[in-house]
Amino acid sequence: MLERRNQRLKLRVLLVHPSIGTDSAGGRACRTLAAEFADLNIETVTANAHEDARATIVSDAAIYAMMIDWSMPDDDGKERDNAAATSLIKTIRARNENVPIFLFIERDKARTLSVELVQDINELVWLLEDSATFVCGRVHAAMRKYTAALFGPLTTALSSFNQVHEYSWHTPGHTGGTAFLKHPAGRAFYDFYGEHVFRTDLSISVGELGSLLDHTGPIGDSEKYISRIFGSHRSYTVTNGSSTSNRIIFMACVGRDQVVMCDRNCHKSIEHGLTMTGGIPHYLVPSRNRYGLMGPIYPARFVEATVRKAVASNPLSKGLKDKQPVFVVVTNSTYDGLCYNTGRVLEEVGGWVDRVHFDEAWYGYGRFNPLYAGRMAMRGDASTHDPKGPTVFTTHSTHKLLAAFSQASYIHVRDGRSPVPHARFNESFMMHGSTSPFYPIMASNEIAATMMDGVGGIALTRESIDEAISFRQVVGRLHRDFAKKKTWFFRTWNAEKVKDPATGKRVAFEDASQELLATDPNCWVLHPGDGWHGFDDLEDGYCMLDPIKVSVLTPGVEDSGELGKSGFPATLLTAYLDACGIEVEKTSDFAVLFLFSIGITKAKWSTLITAMLDFKRDYDADKPLARVLPGLVASHPERYEGLGLRGLGDQMFAELKKGGQTAHLQKAFSDLPEVRISPADAYQELIRGRVERVALANLANRTVATSVVPYPPGIPMIMPGESAGAAKGPYIGYLKSLQSWDKAFPGFGHDTHGVEVEDGEYYVQCLLPR
Ligand SMILES: *Cc1c(COP(=O)(O)O)cnc(C)c1O
């Protein structure tokens, strides 16, 4: 059956005039305009007061033109030098450089317009003199021009292709979705997603759109457009996540038996890079603080002489003729939101290693807010990149903290010494790419860039920074109020005091102005000597905490790093929040991580504050678990029946103290295990089946076949080909403490990659003894 579908973009105009809805000349003129717009199928949204207009401008991104009265009064009803209209125009332009603005003005008032303001608006309208048809026609034309330029090249091409309706004889076989319509389930699926996603799921046979593997046509133009916005020499769209982006870069840069400097705090895909290339790793060990949060790699670890010495004594590089590291990979920012002064890192390694890769999977927005200046791979203008400096790569998981579909990712490159020319790089790109990439993912990668372009990027990043700061300050004030009553509350991990450069005085974080916290990086830098961050001997300015990655701390850890008299681990808070329908990003021993992405809203974080307060009330009252965590008690009645929230917290805290879990973790992640064979060689053993499953009790001195990665901290503790160490050593010690915890607290078990759990026992894949 034929149905009416494919609604075009609905155009909407905002009309701001104090006389709207009144029986006056201005009111009648506005009504006439609205009627005329309706005839053009344009919806009119109205506001007759300044504040109302401002709220609409800030909240409704579907307005494609604004019409504002120059004589708008202020909120108190008085008109002062056109302040209300001026402020509305500034608000619009701070978020959007291009949306058309029309100003209603009386002829004799035109001289009150400043040159600056005239540049911000598109046209003047003499409301009582021009005809409605003429005015609306002008607005309509401006809207069409604006919407035509709204998208980047690929999205523009896809949306116009979408209007063509050709009959396709190529893959995908669902041909624009029609295959789904032949089955009730298919039909329901089609209706669920909506037709456009099917109609724009195309194949490389559609020549007009170009090809991802050849980087031609609108797809190639899209990569150039993304490159301009992200400040690279070249950018690539990847449709299988930064996991793939990292492997592409690795395989383009590293050959068999070449030495690679790898952040030990690395994503799994870096290990895959080592496995696939046969590169020989030299690990850069990051710092760790008392809350179990991983910090940066200190500059001393990058120093040439230190690295060369370590590489020379690395058993894996014995016999290698060439021990020159060819590649460095550093995770920036860390999962917990610590970002490097990348210039400082390049100063240490850029002179003697040719290719540097910053894995910025969680940090794609960094470039767009001045707060992060100098702390990302693509710093400043691409043209300023030193051709004699290192070639710099970065990867962004567009889907993580920008707005894109899952799997959308970018690779950005700046060529320096020893570049990998595009044609060579593309060999690796094609090896990992599909010949049938999903076009909506590519389009979403482009939209994420569009949204960050120009003032939009500043406004959107500032918004999430502001929300994160407000949240932190509310938690800080609650903590302070409760402390006055001699009782505990959560804290957020950030400076306790910040310096206001205007007065030179240090003020409590929760009393500092939003403007200061949102614009002065010094409020977030980990200064040496400051106690809050818990990292020793840091160089000033080297590392900064990203405000939008918010760690909420649970009580229990003393400033010395020892566990105090009382407290409870973060996993209890996570379980409680989960029962309230709040999902967290990550739970460490005493910290829960929340991401304030650009999708954040005030309502979302106020709900979180309420839940934290509820937790405190229920914890202090030792509320029965059957009431607060009913799911847990239902699954493990024998363990948890009759226990209260506080009772469980006490038991957990005691177990952490007894098991020495935190101390084991500290040791396990500050030293590297003994290396036996490379990750690539270990993998060869694995595929040949020369491995066996080994219980913890027998693990001493065995060589592991797959990496062992406990979450948290989500960092490889033992890499493939490394030894599990002595029975009483830190690695087995840590795994034992996790195993004992899992047995003691069913429902709170750890998820450790590389560990199989059977009847509560931990097993690890090891190489057969030689
Ligand atoms: C998530 C992540 C990746 C992988 O990104 P995907 O887009 O999920 O494939 C790579 N590196 C780091 C540091 C990550 O956190």
From TrEMBL:
<dbReference type="InterPro" id="IPR008286">
    <property type="entry name" value="Prn/Lys/Arg_de-COase_C"/>
</dbReference>
<dbReference type="GO" id="GO:0008792">
    <property type="term" value="F:arginine decarboxylase activity"/>
</dbReference>
<keyword id="KW-0210">Decarboxylase</keyword>
<dbReference type="InterPro" id="IPR015421">
    <property type="entry name" value="PyrdxlP-dep_Trfase_major"/>
</dbReference>
<dbReference type="InterPro" id="IPR011193">
    <property type="entry name" value="Orn/lys/arg_de-COase"/>
</dbReference>
<dbReference type="InterPro" id="IPR015424">
    <property type="entry name" value="PyrdxlP-dep_Trfase"/>
</dbReference>
<feature type="domain" description="Orn/Lys/Arg decarboxylases family 1 pyridoxal-P attachment site">
    <location>
        <begin position="395"/>
        <end position="409"/>
    </location>
</feature>
<dbReference type="Pfam" id="PF03709">
    <property type="entry name" value="OKR_DC_1_N"/>
</dbReference>
<dbReference type="GO" id="GO:0006527">
    <property type="term" value="P:L-arginine catabolic process"/>
</dbReference>
<keyword id="KW-0456">Lyase</keyword>
<keyword id="KW-0663">Pyridoxal phosphate</keyword>
<dbReference type="GO" id="GO:0005829">
    <property type="term" value="C:cytosol"/>
</dbReference>
<protein>
    <submittedName>
        <fullName>Arginine decarboxylase</fullName>
        <ecNumber>4.1.1.19</ecNumber>
    </submittedName>
</protein>
<feature type="modified residue" description="N6-(pyridoxal phosphate)lysine">
    <location>
        <position position="400"/>
    </location>
</feature>
<dbReference type="InterPro" id="IPR005308">
    <property type="entry name" value="OKR_de-COase_N"/>
</dbReference>
<dbReference type="Pfam" id="PF01276">
    <property type="entry name" value="OKR_DC_1"/>
</dbReference>
<comment type="similarity">
    <text>Belongs to the Orn/Lys/Arg decarboxylase class-I family.</text>
</comment>
<dbReference type="Pfam" id="PF03711">
    <property type="entry name" value="OKR_DC_1_C"/>
</dbReference>
<dbReference type="GO" id="GO:0030170">
    <property type="term" value="F:pyridoxal phosphate binding"/>
</dbReference>
<dbReference type="InterPro" id="IPR015422">
    <property type="entry name" value="PyrdxlP-dep_Trfase_small"/>
</dbReference>
<dbReference type="InterPro" id="IPR036633">
    <property type="entry name" value="Prn/Lys/Arg_de-COase_C_sf"/>
</dbReference>
<dbReference type="InterPro" id="IPR000310">
    <property type="entry name" value="Orn/Lys/Arg_deCO2ase_major_dom"/>
</dbReference>
